[in-house]
Amino acid sequence: MEVKKERIIAYGIGIILFVVGVVCYAAFPLKTPEQPIRVMLKANGGNVLFDHYRHSSEDGYSIECSDCHHDLEDGAESPSSCGECHKKESTEDNSVKISDAFHNVCVGCHKDNGSGPTKCSECHAF
Question: pTM score, two decimals?
Answer without folding.
Answer: 0.58
